[in-house]
Amino acid sequence: MNASDDVHLVDDPPVTLESQHIANPPTHDVEDEEDNEIPQIYADFITEVFENEDIEIEVETIGMLSYVKRFFQKTSINRFFENMSSKKGETSLPDLYDSFARSFEKSLPTESPPPQVKLSNFTLEGIAKYIKEENPKICFMVGAGISTSAGIPDFRTPGTGLYDNLGKYDLDDPQDIFDLQFFDEDPRPFYTLAKELFPTGVKPTTCHYFIKLVDEKGLLKRCFTQNIDSLERIANIPSQKVVFAHGNHITSTCRVCKKKYNYDWLQAHLADKNKLVPFCEEENCNGVVKPDIVFFGENLPTSFFLGAIHDIPACDLLIIMGTSLVVHPFASIVHEVRPEVPRLLINMAAVGKKRNPFAPSLMYGEPNNIRDVFWPGACDDGVMELARLLGWDEELKDLIHREHLKLENKAQYQKNLNTLDSGTGDSVAGPSTK
Fold first, then answer.
1. Does residue 246 carry a catalytic annotation?
2. pLDDT-based confidence at 24, cuts 50/70/90?
């Protein structure tokens, strides 16, 4: 793969939405606020469309334009359009609604010649044959399922055991601990969970090293991960090839003064049994420090949207592993590949199927399927079988053994993690020496 094929992405920290619950929020002008909200407008609208099973009836009843208007009017997004309308006097609010509706309708599937079938058959064997013959540029979409064999549970799912220590906080919903407003009001439940959520010394899985091997073969376009465990970096997958869609805990930020803290600082705090919530050490601050993971109520990092625009449409194969494909906008990029590009799902459960006509669906198992493959089972088993079919299995096993031996050295483990701290241009504080 030529270097020119890649768009360099910077692993920006998540773009923080303005909140009434933040003490002394940073000031910014209206234009900057609008620029930051633009991706979220589309993300929120697409999320509603994908999750609304009755949308076809509603659109047929009231029309697409009315549906769009109603969506805007019940959300804060309406303020964005009102600001645009007032600033650009020549553009009326109805015109902006109409423009958005027409733009969205143009993005819906239309009648066109059927795309070329790339796979000889819709099995793992067919995918392996395609890779060997075509040397495709590959994008990965991965979720919690690729890390469970490392001992990291799918923490967003209630009942995993991680929530057992939270009963004393009387939460209406355990996932409230990942809500930004709730965190600002009471960060204790999150940090009770974080002591188990961010263990040290965890080693990457077969899946992580398969992605690394794909990169060593020159085939990796980009890896989009929902995970916040940073195992992609510990596996030494090049940082410019990984998009941390939901952030990571390698750095943390003070909610008040925005001072940055590094991985060692947070881990030292979490390891202290006498402390729970970390507070900023900047003089006269004492704000709560939050890991740079994306909470409900925050935007995804800019790198995610850039990758969705530039990388997904440019890839020749999409491999999806260990994700439920229900959290948007992450899940929606499955449908941003070109119509002929094969998509492989390796997962314990069959996911990605939609009945909503406005929500494109994975088509494995359907009579009109021309590109999708589903391999049911544990993700590690799936990639090892794919490696065997490619003739890479011994190479993959050697890579895992070699890299795990390196990680026995604590300094090497830390070196892999610290590659995320560099290049941000920000000053990142380490553990206090006081």
1. yes
2. very low
254 is in an annotated binding site: yes
Q: How far apart are CA 155 and CA 158, in angstroms?
A: 7
* Residue count (the chain): 434
Domain ranges of the chain: 20-107, 124-418
CB burial of residue 269 (10 Å; 0-12, 13-18, 19+): buried
Tell whether 285 is in a known binding site: yes
Q: Does domain 124-418 have CATH number 3.40.50.261?
A: no
What are the φ/ψ torsions at residue 254 (nearest 5 degrees)? -70, 135
Helix (H) and strand (E) counts for the chain?
15, 10
pTM summary value = 0.71
Extract the tokens encoding 19: 């909140």
pLDDT in tens, 367-376: 889 999 999 9
| DSSP result, 146-157 | GTGGGT---TTS
Model confidence over 204-234: pLDDT tens digits?
999 999 999 999 999 999 999 999 888 998 9
Please give the Cα distance from 222 to 117 (Å, whole number).
23
Catalytic-labelled residue, pool 8, 208, 246, 310? 246
Neighbours of 37 (CB within 10 A): 19
